[in-house]
Amino acid sequence: MTPPSPLLRLESDFAPSRGNALTLRLHNGTAAPLSSFRLAFNGMFRIDGDAGLIGGTLVEQLSYHHVVAPPEGYALAPGAVWTVTARSIGTDPATKVPSHYTYGPRSAYLVLADGTVQSVAVAPMTQDGVPGSPARAQPPVTALPAGEAPVSVIPHPRSVEVAGARDAGAPLALAAGPDEARAAYSAAKDLAARLFGDAPPPLFADAGTRCVARLEPMADEAYRIAFAADAITIFASRRTGFFYAFVTLGQMLRGARQRPAQFVLPQSGTIEDAPRLDWRGTLLDLSRRVFQIDALYRAADILAWHKLNRLHLHLTDDEGWRLEIPSYPKLAEVAGWRGHGLALPPLFGSPAERHGAVYSHAEVRGLVAHAASLGIVAVPEIDVPGHSYATLCALPELRDPGETGAYHDVHHYSNNALNPAVAATYTFLETVFGTVADLFPAPLIHIGGDEVAKGAWMQSPLARDLMSKHGWTETAQLQSHFLKRVQAMITALGRKTGAWEEAAQGGGIEAAGSCLFAWTKPQSGLDLAKAGYDVILMPSTRYYLDMAQGEDWWEPGAAWAGTVPLDLTYNYDPGGDWSSDLRPRLKGIEAALWGEPLGQEPGVIDYLLFPRLSAVAESAWTPPERKNLARFLATQDLIPRPAL
After folding, report:
1. Which of residues 118 and 4 earns the better pLDDT score?
2. Hey, what CATH topology would domain 159-273 get?
């Protein structure tokens, strides 16, 4: 990847005080004039076509990718600045009005007269010209509240009754136990080594504090730890329960070493623990923000240290397709990559050079096995029928050739939904989901179903004919027909169907054999449960970790769902307002890290994830009455934060 030239620099300023005007300034620090060039940039905002550019012309646009040209005959002299102003942005309902610097240009480049490309350094967008720099203020580490057990464990156990302190210098060593416990100990030992490196002394070793493991009937993920002077005894019924017990011990030992005045590895007493919810998940958006496979291994490690047990992989979206499907090689060739001159331009901080990833079957099987060794189920998502712009770029034969006109989704992609009336659509999806089921043994396959544009397919003769046969009048009814057919495919594969909450619209998919993910607001989950659906709660206003944590311009993140500070995430009680008869419908909760505001800026992912991911983990595991934000703040900084 060619680094941006420090001699070419793009600055931008968003000015609410001037009616949401946007000013772009290109600095030419080279020794030569620039002429016959175009400036390309991408961010998380959109210049409306009628914004009235001053100083340039908008010559190309796709979603949040823009190409602007200077006036004909213009030359940018050495040391000079070219200024382009949009009188107003954010007037189109599909346009995200900038509220944080991460909405601004994330990458930029020049297309020169000879067709070559030169990357441009990009400065963080300012607001109303006020200088500043990105914020990275982590929450303070506070004192442990009086009366709390001096153990550093996140998520906090169900019951802790301990006393005394033993030597924290010695590592934990498993002296005896069944095969399940030995496998769990080995997994915990390897996990700690990956998370903490070679920093001596290790948390687990062949010799050290004596641990003994014993089988005892209890729930699969439950465990009990008994501390005594001669040994620490771990009780569980399954490998996963033993593994979580060793993670708890490893966290306590590390806390005792890092802050011995505050935390201990107990000498006596008992910890009894079991999760509050079965599904404890995290979604990673692999389409908009390109993650290489090794980063997904690290993500699984992070989840395991939190006792989170679902890694939700959002494999497809408008901006990219990440899974190898041998029967459709164009998906990998076209939909897996972004870059200048490609079907998908640079988006959300992607560089001008070809950038992307397509996971091979071997890579997926390796990731699935790695996650499973940590008690984590890798959950695949193929998002259909909407969010399919990349798919349709690769496979235009899935379009209705007679379709006229255009519809646009919330991200301003046109005609980006698979057509329910095109027979080849279902042949394609049978192949895709068959491949997915072969690669992912997860009991649930997520099929998306969200954000289909209102008015989608209305100008498709094939779709109109299908609607006429059934007496349908709305897009939602067509979508319901489509999703029910896909649900039948998933059922035939022996799996449960996962989908976003919109899958209940227009008649909805069948509640039996499905689970819907409620994302727009907390009330959505309750409404779905009342309609008979099993539910995963992941309200954007609480659990979308790509949302900014404060209103300050220099806080990274998005804000279309409002700001999501740590206390809001931690204090939310999922299902707390549900009646007892509906509670069985709540299957779990999930955090989400969507890719739009992440870009390529170092440290942004770490800052957005932590410690809010830890807060979600505690809500998923710990009974509400045992949660304590002050205690959490005293321990959250001890959670490892390997870069993704």
Report:
1. 118
2. Chitobiase; domain 2 (3.30.379)
